[in-house]
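Entry — protein

Goal — fold tokens:
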Amino acid sequence: MDRVLIVDDEKGMRDFLSIMLKKESYAVAAAESVERALQALSAGDVDLIISDISMPGQSGLDLLKASKAASPDTPVIMITAYASTESAIEALKLGAYDYIIKPFDVEELKAVVRNALEKRRLEHENRALKRELKEKLKFDELVGDSPRMKEVTDLITKIAPTNSTVLISGESGTGKELVARAIHAASARAERPFVSINCGALPDELLESELFGHVRGSFTGAVTAKKGLFEVADGGSIFLDEIGDTSPAMQVKLLRVLQERRIRRVGGTEESEVNVRVLAATNQDLETLVRDRRFREDLYYRINVIQIRMPALREKPEDIRPLALHFLVKYARIMGKRITRISDEALRCLTDHAWPGNVRELENVIERAVALESSDAISVDSLAADVRSGSRGVEAFPVALVDGGIDLERQLETLREHFMEEALRRANGIQTKAAELLGMSFRSFRYFAKKYHLLDGRRDSSRVAAN
């Protein structure tokens, strides 16, 4: 039963409208003042408000403003004694559904009430369907049943409803932006914009303009004013990819925005507030950058409220097959090909490859294979040469110092993890045998295997049983 609140200082009008609407099977409540009406509205049991505009004390327009702030979805019908008054026009500007002029036609009022409530129902159903669709689709691209991916999706589900800043870390190609989009899609901000920018792809001057906007004439070529991405994303989310690549000067500006939630356009003097959730990502070790004074410690703690670490594909080999099949379906549909499976031999090659480029590399390999394949199954011949060779990705490790140097400890950790995983594969998951292949004690092997999550999930049970 729809619930209607009548607000009028005249008892006769309240009684008349109450009787009329009850006969139409509405649940009716009445209030003689705006104050009493707001009390009823705060209880959250009102579907429609019918209010006189002119009342002693606070007016119907005051009620309209307050109701729109407290419950924007609740339609408000205003009643006025004067045709085409300024207050009636003002009511429409403030968001009133409609207004009725005294003396009014009863059937007309009934029709307006029905239409207002029907519009509200349709809007609620539409939002519910959108939420249901987003709930269904938000993890569609985050394919994988491994324990590591389940940890990621479980964490997304927990943090999405909050407004906390999130730092997504992981190697290139692991799907950091997909995680950011999933967080946004599962949040209350899903109806608002999601915008992303690669902070490492632009010089400081251009990055500042892209993020904060600029005023006309602020620099050569600024012939018009431009909104920045923080303004574009107002009410929604902004994804700052590769935030570890930003300069010290830009880090200071980002820190101020995160602290104050205010931005100033390049060349401008006025500040404006922004309501934006910040999702940041990096493929670098920010803690190391902080220790080396290449990344501000205060900015690091500001963005690292909640951290999600995306595992590399080599850390979750059980996800290779479902991911490959996912990309197979995707590109077979795009290219109009009837390829439905991957041959066992091709799948072994995919499983044996180290995937230094992670999920992005796997997607490219499958796209190429679908384009080249002429049968109904992806064969070994359609795979790239390095994948066919069963390469375990030695090329993923640097053989020479690059100009910017390397993180030696991290590379040695990665090398140890790589050889331990390879030893486990050759030993069919038997930890003692794998430790012997590497000349390690079983205790040391088990310590590092747990550290690198090599014993997670199904692999854990098979290897422990084998021992």
